[in-house]
UniProtKB/TrEMBL annotation:
<keyword id="KW-0547">Nucleotide-binding</keyword>
<dbReference type="Pfam" id="PF02463">
    <property type="entry name" value="SMC_N"/>
</dbReference>
<keyword id="KW-0235">DNA replication</keyword>
<dbReference type="GO" id="GO:0009432">
    <property type="term" value="P:SOS response"/>
</dbReference>
<dbReference type="GO" id="GO:0003697">
    <property type="term" value="F:single-stranded DNA binding"/>
</dbReference>
<dbReference type="GO" id="GO:0005737">
    <property type="term" value="C:cytoplasm"/>
</dbReference>
<protein>
    <recommendedName>
        <fullName>DNA replication and repair protein RecF</fullName>
    </recommendedName>
</protein>
<dbReference type="InterPro" id="IPR018078">
    <property type="entry name" value="DNA-binding_RecF_CS"/>
</dbReference>
<dbReference type="InterPro" id="IPR001238">
    <property type="entry name" value="DNA-binding_RecF"/>
</dbReference>
<dbReference type="InterPro" id="IPR042174">
    <property type="entry name" value="RecF_2"/>
</dbReference>
<dbReference type="GO" id="GO:0006260">
    <property type="term" value="P:DNA replication"/>
</dbReference>
<dbReference type="InterPro" id="IPR027417">
    <property type="entry name" value="P-loop_NTPase"/>
</dbReference>
<keyword id="KW-0742">SOS response</keyword>
<dbReference type="InterPro" id="IPR003395">
    <property type="entry name" value="RecF/RecN/SMC_N"/>
</dbReference>
<comment type="similarity">
    <text>Belongs to the RecF family.</text>
</comment>
<keyword id="KW-0067">ATP-binding</keyword>
<dbReference type="GO" id="GO:0000731">
    <property type="term" value="P:DNA synthesis involved in DNA repair"/>
</dbReference>
Amino acid sequence: MWVKELTVINFKNYDEASISFDSGVNAFTGDNGAGKTNILDALHYLSLCKSYFNPVDSQQIKHGAEFFMVQGVFEKNNQDDLLACGLKRNQKKQFKKNKKDYQRLADHIGAYPLVMISPNDSVIVTDGSEERRRFVDNVISQTDNHYLDDLISYNKCLQSRNSLLKQYGHSSKLDDDLLNIYNEQLVTIGEKIFEKRKVFMKKFVEIFNQHYQYLTDDKEFVTLTYESQLLNNSFIQLLKDSLAKDKILERTTVGIHKDDLLFSIHDMPLKKFGSQGQQKSFLIALKLAQYSFLSLEKGFKPLLLLDDIFDKLDDKRTTKLMQMVSREDFGQIFITDTNLQRVENTFKSIQIDVRIFEVSNGEIISPLMYHGQDK
């Protein structure tokens, strides 16, 4: 699978741009704020129906415009598919494949898988467990059509149970029959999600370890561990045991919405004891493992988007990364960097072709160029 063409209209800082891509490595260079990352985000929209960076769709419309449109031609199984996403102010987002609307956007998720590696990923290490659960859920959702539906159902039931607990806080009366119904629903859906996460993590950790060892020449010992209250307890018993606490706090304190991933380096928490370079390598290994997992599960290669990843990696790790992703087991790749010379030198050193676009103020201003191996 690869993207042949991309067109954007009134998208972020672009009035209009049309780009034809190479099936291998494509790089965008230019100053910060020029619009390099916006091209990657447009691809993310077409793959996952939303921005990678901002959940508010209306904020993707260029200032002063009334709509945005993103359109791309994807080749998959030797067939071209035209994907289009558009939004008019104060209206519902539209998403089409070959000019036909999807009844549910969830039906599109996973059909054109994509992995983005970005400086924003640092929140997976530095922020709370919600970011790490979101990472896990994003990967599984692209391989399991029912997983996203289960998550939505679980969160609706969780909201209902929390509302019931809040009512108790105001009235000191609890509808036990309704509570039991919510408990049963949470357990049924929650256990299903837990089992899927557990199976996923067993496969994923092994792939992650391989990528991290490659990036660091096997010189650092790291661990990735799935943590869930359900690993050692039955969900229904957890709910019963926590009821007194839940009444006081007016929210559900146990369940798969408390799951987490534990990151460590040399048996110490990565967040506290990992250097910036080590944290960056850990995150890149996570995302490359996501890519490999999706590739194995889907039977074809996802898109790989690398946004401004050179700045916090030393030259050795950068070269190792580019060597890895430019091998035949990776497909189409998109890269952004502020330094044109760095992109040229990196790919010349590993003798890989790259198509380079220069970006300035929301415009692709230079003709495409090839650098890398001699043909």
